[in-house]
């Protein structure tokens, strides 16, 4: 973790420039804010009372847009996950000003100095968020998890819930969580391994607030509590996807596996890193055993991510089984409707079919239009994230021009070598030939332009 010294204000100027470049909204139009104020006062009337259940949330400590709360029961050898999802559709109607603006945005955009929400804060951080300051309307998915980790959707209902606690990934203790939390996550993770799923996440390069008006740049490893919490969301999304596919409707998240040519390159990369990838072992099985705490293994995980085609949203199609290669399953997004537009419609469709009702016409029509909207939102989010990292790297290295720094080659492509600095959380490119992933280099920092968000290195040895 490296503090970013910014005496000239380059970071603040750069973040403002990124917001301008990518047209990141600063607020919401007046009619949207006015509609949200009215919507926030809408009293739930189609909801059963589940406030007796001890729901809790588990998120980053600073999060206030809380999509999910959960409680776990036992049913013989099965575990029942009651997964409450923010009932955004209760507050937002198709075609109203809030909905129109959400379709324009597609998803919440996150920057180190704040976020551009999908919905106005009075909803996303207030009336619709599952905060522990009062009852909230939710859509509760009951997911049955068998001992072998297979999942099924037992029911879906609109309910009033009351979260007992806002738990944080970095501070939560086992005693704070519902009984069965670790066991349920273990079942889901075991089922992933059995399916040959490759949902292994490398450390992420990120810029975050330091809480004192400054920022830090780091590689952030995932916490055990975060991985276990993700398993609960995964269980729900898998159960939802299966239910939608069975009822011949829905919107799915798909991703193809790396092709044979890409796998061949990855095998060469593994050899360069000194990693033992047995000839008879599949990529999925090999990736599942990687340790993100080891720098070379983490770098190889990043290489796998770059070799995989991007994920897509696709609507139901007759005769086609939507498939997500990394999940090794049919998969949907339903658990983050405060942050992703598509999830609101998936929740509505699942609520309908689970209760024997037809999917609303507007929801079915949305499934055909959402892929383009979500692809655009994903692309903008990726561009913003990369630009923020580039800016932070340039600010952090300012004043160190002409220094010689140790680095490791992590990848090779037509533009040269991608390198990871050995002592700083910086990923960059250098014009280097006759090198291979895993090679150690020494590079000179030759130029920095914080306004252009560029850092230039020259290979020394």
Write the layout of secondary structure elements.
Elements lengths: L1 E2 L6 H12 L8 H11 L7 E2 L7 E3 L8 E8 L2 E9 L1 H4 L5 H9 L3 E3 L2 E3 L4 H7 L8 E10 L5 E11 L4 E3 L12 H15 L8 E6 L5 E6 L3 H23 L4 E4 L5 H13 L10 H6 L6 H13 L4 E4 L25 H14 L6 H37 L6 E10 L2 E6 L5 E4 L9 E10 L4 E6 L2
Helix pairs in contact: 1-12, 2-5, 6-7, 8-10, 11-12
Please characterize this protein's 3D structure:
Helix content is 36%, strand content 24%. A hairpin with a 2-residue loop joins strand 15 and strand 16. The model has no long low-confidence stretch (mean pLDDT 90). It is an alpha+beta fold and 461 residues long. The chain has 2 domains: 2-256 and 309-396, no CATH class; 400-461, Nucleic acid-binding proteins (OB fold (Dihydrolipoamide Acetyltransferase, E2P), Beta Barrel). It contains 12 helices and 19 strands. Strands 2-9-8-5-4 form a 5-stranded mixed β-sheet. A 5-stranded antiparallel β-sheet has the order 17-16-15-18-19. Helix 1 runs antiparallel to helix 12 and helix 2 runs parallel beside helix 5 (121-127).
Overall pLDDT: 90
Give start-end ranges of low-pLDDT stretches. Answer: none
Total strands: the figure is 19
Please give the radius of gyration in angstroms: 23 Å
Sheet with most strands: strand arrangement: 2-9-8-5-4
Roughly how much helix do the residues carry, as a percent range?
25-40%
Number of individual domains: 2
Q: Profile the largest sheet.
A: 5 strands, mixed
Strand content: 15-25%
Shape: globular
Which class of secondary structure composition applies to the elements?
alpha+beta
Question: How many H/I helices?
Answer: 12
Distance between the termini: 27 Å
């Amino acid at each position: 973790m490296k503090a970013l010294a910014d005496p000239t204000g380059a970071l603040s100027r750069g973040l403002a420039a990124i917001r301008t470049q990518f047209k990141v909204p600063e607020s919401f139009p007046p009619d949207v804010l006015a509609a949200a104020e009215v919507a926030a006062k809408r009293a739930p009337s189609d909801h059963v009372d589940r406030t007796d259940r001890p729901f809790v949330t588990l998120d980053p400590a600073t999060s206030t847009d809380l999509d999910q709360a959960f409680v776990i029961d036992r049913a013989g050898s099965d575990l029942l996950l009651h997964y409450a999802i923010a009932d955004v559709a209760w507050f937002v109607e198709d075609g109203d000003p809030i909905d129109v603006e959400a379709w324009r945005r597609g998803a919440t955009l996150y920057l180190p100095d704040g976020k551009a929400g999908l919905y106005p804060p009075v909803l996303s951080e207030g009336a619709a968020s599952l905060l522990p300051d009062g009852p909230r309307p939710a859509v509760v998915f009951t997911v049955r998890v068998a001992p072998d980790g297979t999942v099924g959707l037992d029911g879906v209902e609109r309910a009033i819930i009351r979260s007992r606690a806002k738990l944080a990934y970095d501070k939560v203790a086992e005693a704070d969580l519902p009984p069965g939390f670790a066991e349920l996550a273990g079942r889901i993770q075991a089922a992933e391994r059995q399916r040959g799923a490759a949902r292994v996440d490398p450390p992420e390069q990120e810029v975050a607030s330091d809480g004192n008006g400054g920022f830090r740049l780091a590689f952030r490893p995932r916490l055990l509590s975060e991985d276990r919490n993700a398993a609960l969301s995964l269980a729900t999304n898998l159960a939802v996807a299966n239910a939608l596919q069975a009822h011949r409707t829905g919107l799915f998240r798909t991703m193809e596996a790396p092709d044979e040519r890409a796998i061949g390159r990855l095998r060469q990369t593994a050899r360069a890193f000194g990693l033992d990838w047995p000839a008879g072992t599949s990529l999925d099985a090999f990736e599942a055993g990687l340790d993100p705490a080891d720098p070379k293994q983490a770098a190889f995980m990043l290489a796998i991510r770059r070799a995989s085609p991007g994920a897509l949203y696709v609507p139901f199609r007759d005769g086609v089984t939507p498939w997500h290669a990394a999940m090794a399953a049919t998969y949907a997004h339903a658990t983050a409707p405060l942050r992703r537009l598509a999830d609101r419609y998936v929740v509505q469709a699942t609520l309908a079919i689970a209760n024997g009702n037809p999917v609303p016409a507007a929801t079915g029509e949305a499934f055909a239009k959402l892929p383009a909207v979500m692809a655009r939102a994903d692309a903008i989010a990726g561009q913003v994230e990369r630009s923020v990292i580039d800016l932070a790297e340039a600010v952090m290295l300012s004043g160190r021009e002409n220094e010689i720094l140790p680095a490791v080659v992590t990848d090779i492509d037509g533009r040269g070598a991608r390198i990871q600095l050995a002592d700083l959380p910086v990923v960059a490119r250098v014009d280097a030939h006759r090198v291979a992933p895993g090679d150690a280099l020494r590079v000179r920092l030759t130029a920095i332009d914080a306004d252009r968000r560029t850092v230039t290195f020259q290979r020394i040895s």
